[in-house]
Amino acid sequence: MDERFVDLRSTKNPKARIKMLSGHFATKNSHVNTYIDMSTVKTRHNNARETARTLAEEYLTNTMVDTIVCLKNTEVIGAFMAETLADSSNMSMSAGNNISVVTPEFDFTGQILFRENSQRMIEGKQVLILTDSMATGTLTMQAIESVLYYRGRVCGICAVFSAISKVAGVEVKTIFTSSDLPDYHVYSAHQCPICDAGVRLDGIVNSFGYAKL
């Protein structure tokens, strides 16, 4: 791990911990000046469980959830969220539900689809969309459109970190926001002041991590 990474712990739950690395990075849809590493909360079961509990609190008493659609390798968090939401001891609206945790597929054009065997977990269901981080909301918007196409109802959007507060008019529930990372900036790949200053990219980032250039 690069020694330049800095830990950031949530004030809501210190075990919900992310790491940050300043630089110049390209995502699929933008350029950012900070790479946010989510590997701890997405892969370590204890941190994932605590992250899930913190996110699930937003929906316990006010939202019925039938299905969680997991974007960007958040299945571990999604499974723990389902467990928390379905727990009858939590006074949850979803208590007792056998909540489905599904991962969408992408076709060769990048569109989201659900195969026949998983469409029944979307159609007519209350669907919560979960992702690790959102800079522009483009992927989440795709997920919303896909859920609606398969006749599901989007009951919520949540992320570990989000630089935006709403997608398609739906409030994003999150643990970390831009206020926790005041120096975090998102730029269009074609209008990036870091590029204009002649600074080369440090790496390309996606949900699996970052690759140095």
Automatic annotation (TrEMBL):
InterPro entries the UniProt entry points to: PRTase-like (IPR029057), PRTase_dom (IPR000836)
A molecular-function term among this protein's GO annotations: glycosyltransferase activity
Keywords tagged on the record: Glycosyltransferase, Transferase
Highest taxon listed in the record's lineage: Bacteria
Designated name of the protein: Orotate phosphoribosyltransferase
Organism: Candidatus Mediterraneibacter caccavium
